[in-house]
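Students often ask what a holo structure prediction actually looks like on paper. The answer is less mysterious than it sounds. You provide the chain, you provide the ligand, and the output is a string of discrete structure tokens encoding the 3D arrangement of the protein together with zinc ion.
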Amino acid sequence: MTADDGTAFLIDTPPEMRLACVEYGIDKVDAVVITHAHIDHVAGFDDVRRFNTLNGTRVPCAPGDPLYRGLPYRIEGKPMTCYAMPDTIEQLHRIFPYISAEGGENGLFRPMIEFDPSGSFTLGSVAVERLNVEHGFPCCGYLLREASGEEEAGVRTLAYISDCHVLPDETLGRIHGVDVLVLNCLRERPHPTHLSLSESLAYIGRVAPKKTYLIHMCHDISHAEWLAKLPACVKPAYDGLELRACS
Ligand SMILES: [Zn+2]
Ligand SMILES: [Zn+2]
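The corresponding structure tokens follow.
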């Protein structure tokens, strides 16, 4: 996601994150925001270190320097800030025990991560607030508010809720009338920790967003079948979908 001021950030780092970055030309990431540590949301976390390099600086390096690798410079990677709930941060440390804000002693990157458990923060011109949801355990989504832009454009808002089976009333109140709702919808059949189609549609009715994109669907039915089942203002998301502010 890219803010109006150019700040770019990822929400979750799934298994094919690197391939997606290559496919869609994502060559700038300033921060990472994680919903939870299930492996389908964090398996690509290690590839964040490429952005430590891209965001880093070249410093002169000569023979005799312990970090000299045959080039007149070395890259000093820039740590990436990762925003997540405290429990999720703990789980990420267990899955990736080598994560650190520092590079390795031999100059190799780990990746370099600075964790921030804050429930609200800003990423460039976007204000981000954590949204409490239930996913068989206390989990979260995020409400994004683009503050910059023309006055008449108003505040542009997007709620991103990937994995959940319950949206508490407090969260429904905070996202009511949002411009875009991105919402979990696993399948038509019920699931103990994900929303089914009828449950998602019921929540969409209560939130009353201008537009909704369903995500995290399984393979029970095809994209075309989803399209046929959904009301006009609700669409199934797809790889490479681009949303632009004010559109
Ligand atoms: Zn999950
Ligand atoms: Zn998931």
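Residues 38, 40-41, 163, 216 surround zinc ion (ligand 2) (CB under 6 Å).
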